[in-house]
Hints:
Shape: globular
Strand content: 25-35%
Strand order of the largest sheet: 1-4-5-6-7-10-11-12
CATH architecture: Alpha-Beta Barrel
Number of helices: 11
CATH class: Alpha Beta
Number of strands: 12
Amino acid sequence: xxxxxxxxxxxxxxxxxxxxxxxxxxxxxxxxxxxxxxxxxxxxxxxxxxxxxxxxxxxxxxxxxxxxxxxxxxxxxxxxxxxxxxxxxxxxxxxxxxxxxxxxxxxxxxxxxxxxxxxxxxxxxxxxxxxxxxxxxxxxxxxxxxxxxxxxxxxxxxxxxxxxxxxxxxxxxxxxxxxxxxxxxxxxxxxxxxxxxxxxxxxxxxxxxxxxxxxxxxxxxxxxxxxxxxxxxxxxx
Length: 237
């Protein structure tokens, strides 16, 4: 199981949200690129970078920050937030990222996903954010009419291989991931599932190894020091 250190960018700074609420935000650093280098030094193998301004406004607001991260680390980067047009995907790849995550747009426009997958293959990842089991959109501000698993199966039919699955209720709480939801998603889709939300301890990370997920995103717990990245990577190997 792979561990993905998370870097969320808001107004050019490295931040974390609680349960997706922009009103409940903590700033952890002025330089996302410095943070990226720190996680690489500690053994990080793949970074998860989100443009939170882009998620809200529908455009790559922090494009230069992402470009700088890619310039300063040697490990691959996956990124999402504000991916609404084909040009948004191309610009992220041009900036040096390895995988682009499509979130809100995937819910409303499956043809957009199909075209992206046809062009870029498994470099396209779908972000599925769930609130009470239903797919949420627009920076988690509202929910759609179908379950997260139903949506994942639809994406799989379009050729998608990997999803980032976030349980909003647990996100940023450090109280533990939603193991039942992650197991259900992995068991019912066969996709590479990257679990996101709720990780607060090394034990939480280890608890995910039995769910069948491919990886886990760790955010707030790294920034608070509750999880040591190098120790966690060694523990899941």
